[in-house]
Each structure stands twice: as C-alpha cells, then as structure tokens.
From TrEMBL:
<feature type="binding site">
    <location>
        <position position="192"/>
    </location>
    <ligand>
        <name>Mg(2+)</name>
    </ligand>
</feature>
<keyword id="KW-0119">Carbohydrate metabolism</keyword>
<dbReference type="InterPro" id="IPR006439">
    <property type="entry name" value="HAD-SF_hydro_IA"/>
</dbReference>
<protein>
    <recommendedName>
        <fullName>Phosphoglycolate phosphatase</fullName>
        <ecNumber>3.1.3.18</ecNumber>
    </recommendedName>
</protein>
<keyword id="KW-0460">Magnesium</keyword>
<keyword id="KW-0479">Metal-binding</keyword>
<dbReference type="InterPro" id="IPR050155">
    <property type="entry name" value="HAD-like_hydrolase_sf"/>
</dbReference>
<comment type="pathway">
    <text>Organic acid metabolism; glycolate biosynthesis; glycolate from 2-phosphoglycolate: step 1/1.</text>
</comment>
<dbReference type="InterPro" id="IPR037512">
    <property type="entry name" value="PGPase_prok"/>
</dbReference>
<comment type="function">
    <text>Specifically catalyzes the dephosphorylation of 2-phosphoglycolate. Is involved in the dissimilation of the intracellular 2-phosphoglycolate formed during the DNA repair of 3'-phosphoglycolate ends, a major class of DNA lesions induced by oxidative stress.</text>
</comment>
<feature type="binding site">
    <location>
        <position position="26"/>
    </location>
    <ligand>
        <name>Mg(2+)</name>
    </ligand>
</feature>
<feature type="active site" description="Nucleophile">
    <location>
        <position position="26"/>
    </location>
</feature>
<dbReference type="GO" id="GO:0008967">
    <property type="term" value="F:phosphoglycolate phosphatase activity"/>
</dbReference>
<dbReference type="Pfam" id="PF00702">
    <property type="entry name" value="Hydrolase"/>
</dbReference>
<dbReference type="InterPro" id="IPR023198">
    <property type="entry name" value="PGP-like_dom2"/>
</dbReference>
<keyword id="KW-0378">Hydrolase</keyword>
<dbReference type="InterPro" id="IPR023214">
    <property type="entry name" value="HAD_sf"/>
</dbReference>
C-alpha cells in the first residue's frame, strides 16, 4: 500500500510512470518558525542605525528572498524597488550588524512547526530521499541544522548563496534533484511562499504549500499550488 496521502497519490497517478521519489523542503516558514530570531536580529540592527524597530509582523512579510534582501527591505520599509537600488556600502554596513547577531541567536526563539519532526522521521525511516532547498545563506543554515540535529534527514542541502540563482529560480531545485539522482517530475516541493511555488513549478515538481508560514503578506492559494496542506503530516497516510 502506498505511503502517500490520497491527494499526493491522485496527483502522481494522473502522471504515467511517475511516483514520488523525493521530497524537497523549504526551511523558513515551512519547517521552522524563524521570524522571532530574525526580527530580533533586524531590530537590533535598526536600533544601532538609529532607526525605529520593525517588529515580527513586518519582518515576516520581508522574509523569503534571503538575508541580503531581508536587510535591504528593513532599510527601506519593505519597498522592493528602493531595496534593490540601495548603495552596496550601506547594505554591507547593515549586514555587518545583522549577520554576527543572527548567527549567535538563530536558535533562541525559533520553533519547529507541529508535525515536522514526526513526518521527517517517518519519511527517513521509509527511505524517502529528502532535500532542503532554502534561500537562507549557508552559514546560518549549517548552524541551524546542527542545532536542530536535522542533518541526517537530508540527502542534499542547497542554500541561498550556493548557486548564482535563488528561488523563485528553479536552479536550486534542479541541483538538489541532481544530487539525489531523481527527476524533478518525481519530486515534491513543499514550501510556504511564492518563491517555492514558482521555483517548484518551473522545475516540474509537484508543488505543495503550507499556509502557516510567510508569504509576503499574501495568500499562498494565489500561486495555485497543486496542493495545500496544514501540516507536513498530511503528506503521508496514517494508519
Ligand atoms: O532566508 C530567507 O529569506 C528564507 O529562506 P527560505 O527559502 O527557507 O524560506
Ligand atoms: Mg520559506
């Protein structure tokens, strides 16, 4: 009997010769609620720059395109056009305040979403290949994975600064699939944001969204994922 839940089975049975061989997971907003620690790091940076703090709700809207874009958005009140046009020296000075603080405090108040540990454990026991595909920079991801004890779960880890492209570009997903020796059509991309959904679709994966994370203040349903689940546990059949 299939280990996959009914909607997952239905998606794949409509595609001849394909069964799910691997899962690719986004990190922030999908597996972990990292905004408390990200916001603390952003806010202390803003205070040192003599600016008003942002707070968790705004930081939650700015997360998703990597640390550099998060810091840029914080410097421009979330205005993406201005954020992209910022002076490199100004960004570097802000990163010099954000990075060491976040590295030191990245697992202080960060939580793991319900259903995550249990599902990762079951999938690992069943021998399903799994990858982490995150826009978070490598230096933070490595420390977090070790702190959480999650490294053994993943056959591949592709971070935001590992390749020239980041999600929503499909390059990280394609690379992770290559590392796991699976076709993207046989893989499921699970994420919380439009970046994950667009990257997953472009790569040819089944796209599964969780609505509890961060999606720039928008409803993830507008990205038309193949499936929306409320817990990772909904991916598999429970008997
Ligand atoms: O660092 C970020 O901005 C978010 O990373 P994610 O891709 O794991 O959601
Ligand atoms: Mg995310």
């Amino acid at each position: 009997m299939s280990i996959w839940s009914e909607p997952v089975q239905t998606y794949f049975s409509a595609r001849e010769d394909t069964v799910p061989q691997a899962l690719l997971f986004d990190l922030d907003g999908t597996l972990i609620d990292s905004v408390p620690d990200l916001a603390a790091a952003i806010d202390q940076m803003l205070v040192q720059l003599g600016r008003p703090v942002a707070g968790q709700p705004l930081v939650a809207e700015w997360v998703g395109n990597g640390a550099d874009m998060l810091v840029r958005r914080a410097l421009c009140d979330g205005n993406d056009m201005q954020a992209q046009a910022l002076d490199a020296a100004e960004v570097a000075a802000a990163r010099a305040l954000f990075d060491p603080f976040y590295l030191e405090h990245l697992n202080d108040a960060t939580g793991v979403y319900p259903g995550v540990e249990k599902t990762l454990t079951i999938l690992a026991v069943l021998g399903i290949r799994m990858a982490l595909v995150t826009n978070k920079p490598r230096v933070f991801t490595d420390v977090l994975l070790d702190a959480l004890g999650w490294r053994p779960y993943f056959d591949a880890v592709v971070c935001g600064d590992d390749l020239p492209q980041r999600k929503p570009d499909p390059a990280q997903i394609l690379h992770a699939c290559e590392l796991m020796a699976v076709e993207p059509q046989q893989a499921i991309m699970v994420g919380d944001s439009r970046n994950d959904m667009y990257a997953g679709k472009a790569a040819g994966c089944m796209t599964v969204a969780v609505p509890y994370g961060y999606n720039h203040g928008e409803n993830i349903a507008t990205c038309q994922p193949n499936l929306i689940i409320h817990s990772l546990a909904d991916l598999i059949r429970h008997v």
